Amino acid sequence: MVATPKARERLLQGEAARRTSVPERDPEFGPWLAQASILIVDDEPGMRNFLVRTLGPRCSHIEEAADTDEASRKLDAHHFDVVILDNIMPGKNGVDWLAEQRAIGFFAEAILITAFADLETAIQALRAGAVDFVLKPFRSNQILNSVARCLDRMRLQRENFVLRYELKATSDHILLRDKLIGASRVIGEVRDTIARVAPLPTSVLLTGESGTGKEVAARSLHTLSDRAEKPFVPVNCAAIPADMIETELFGHIKGAFTGAENGREGLFTHAQGGTLFLDEIGEMPLATQSKLLRVIEDRRVRPVGSEREVPVDLRFVFATNADLQKEVGSGRFRADLFYRINVMQIHLPPLRDRGNDVQELADLFMQKLSQQLGMPKVPIDAPVRASLARYPWPGNVRELRNLIERSLILGKFPDDFRGQRAPQASLAGETLDDVERRHILAVLEETGGNRDEAARRLGISRKTIDRKCAVWND
Is the pLDDT assigned to residue 328 strictly greater than 90? Predict the structure, then answer.
């Protein structure tokens, strides 16, 4: 029976509506299937139709390819979480095509489907990078279970990588990272601004001194956005060696450089669908800055050694404690990148400008850290509170946290904060810069010039001390 033009039109409209409808979560196959993007590569229209009818209503995005050439074009144009690939096709078989794609930068999960089951094919498929092997004919629940396993595997791998990276990148305890504490007007304005911009796709630049809570603000932006269920990936640009930052961010393929025995996704890809937080953006090497600019503009990433650019969908949040305009003037930061990231700027105020927030934070740190360390609380009496209020906090909230932890370990506050000796910061006739300089140098003297230990005690980064000492010629 030949379909009339109107009948064909109705069929096409029905197909388009089915593909663009919002999928419902299917608890039987896990929560991640509804968010998945899937590519089906098979030369048999009947098999493609069966897979589309099975997966289409349950996933976010699905596309078909009748051969490997069409599949390659679709991979160049769109990000896919899972590729379902037939092995026996005209021209090039699925295993050979998959091996080629892995070699040029293809990191999605791949499921091989075939009617010919033999051990050699299975071994070749695993070597080419397939993570599952499904025999034809199969039922709908078999392929749904296979896709669900792939998505769970991918999610666990990425979560594991991000958690390992966070543990390696910072020695801070995970505490109070998800909310901005304080009742002061200035911190209230910051919270209001975050609430307004969080639902938007706009990139955000967070500025402020070291230790003011820029990562806390970035996490708040992520939590209040529509990407909250996707990854939040924090990257400290100052903590990554200059010769490694490109492969950390962009990933690399096997053999891209000496020692690259396996391909690996970069942090951009691990943040797929979520938020990428680039802290200390002013410390990024100039060569990497130009590549970052292209990623921001095109939303495409080229892994080191790869011929293919991988599409990425993520939100950028940047942070710096440096004056980027001065960095642009001195040639250490690209002007075009600065104007690209400086769309929405939020300034995090220093602790000394936040009034009684220091008291609230001190109480909260004392409660939480005493529980973490399993040690009794140290009373915060009136003389200590007066000293907390007078002290300028060059290391801001991070320095306050370190002071509380140190006091818990020692069982008492330092003499300066117990009223037995006037805090150094209270001396008259000095500017705030003078007090900060004297305090940092005093801590350096106490640590025998060990800048890493001084930075830990002050709650600031080593690079901040290096920069200030360079200015002071010390």
Answer: yes
C-beta separation of 378 from 412 below 8 A: yes
Residue 370: Cβ-neighbour burial (10 angstroms; 0-12, 13-18, 19+): middle
Question: For position 208, what pLDDT does the model report?
Answer: 93
Calculate ∠ Cα 455-275-157, nearest 5°. Answer: 90
φ, ψ for residue 151, nearest 5 deg: -65, -40
Question: What secondary structure does DSSP assign to 15-76, as a single string?
Answer: HHHHHHSPPPP-GGG-TTGGG-EEEEE-S-HHHHHHHHHHHGGGSSEEEEESSHHHHHHHHH
For residues 301 and 271, what is the distance between their CA atoms, to the nearest angstrom?
12
Residue showing tokens 């390992």: 164
In the chain, count H helices and then E strands.
19, 14
Q: How confident is the model at residue 114 (pLDDT cuts 50, 70, 90)?
A: confident
- 125-181: per-residue pLDDT in tens? 777 778 888 888 888 888 898 898 888 888 887 777 777 666 555 444 344 444 788
Query: Residues 84-104: what's their mean pLDDT?
Result: 85
What secondary structure does DSSP assign to 251-287, as a single string? EE-TTSSTT--S-EE-HHHHTTTSEEEEESGGGS-HH
Which among 346, 343, 344, 320 has a CA at the least distance from the CA of 333? 320
- Residue 327: alpha-carbon gap to chain centroid: 25
Question: Whole-angstrom Cα distance, residue 320 to residue 341?
Answer: 11
* Beta strand 132-135 pairing with 109-114: parallel
Q: Is residue 439 helix, strand or coil?
A: helix
Name the residue with higher pLDDT: 474 or 163.
Answer: 163
Counting every residue written for the chain, the total comes to: 474
Cα–Cα distance, 300 to 182 (Å, whole number): 39
Least confident range of 2-16, 192-206, 232-246, 395-409? 2-16
Structure confidence at residue 349 (pLDDT): 94
- Between CA 114 and CA 121 the distance in angstroms is 9
Rg of the chain's alpha carbons, rounded to an integer?
A: 27
pLDDT at 159: 76
Mean pLDDT, the chain, whole residue set? 82
Residues 6+ apart with CB under 8 A from 8: none
- Higher pLDDT: 282 or 467? It is 282
User: In DSSP terms, which residues pair with 310 in a beta bridge?
Assistant: 301
User: Which residue is listed with tokens 């966070």?
Assistant: 166
The whole-angstrom separation of Cα 44 and Cα 162 is 39
> Residues 234, 218: contact at Cβ < 8 Å?
yes
What order do you get walking across the sheet with 315-320 strand by strand? 232-236, 275-279, 315-320, 204-207, 344-347
Contact 282, 322 (CB under 8 A): yes
Hey, what amino acid is at 396? Answer: N
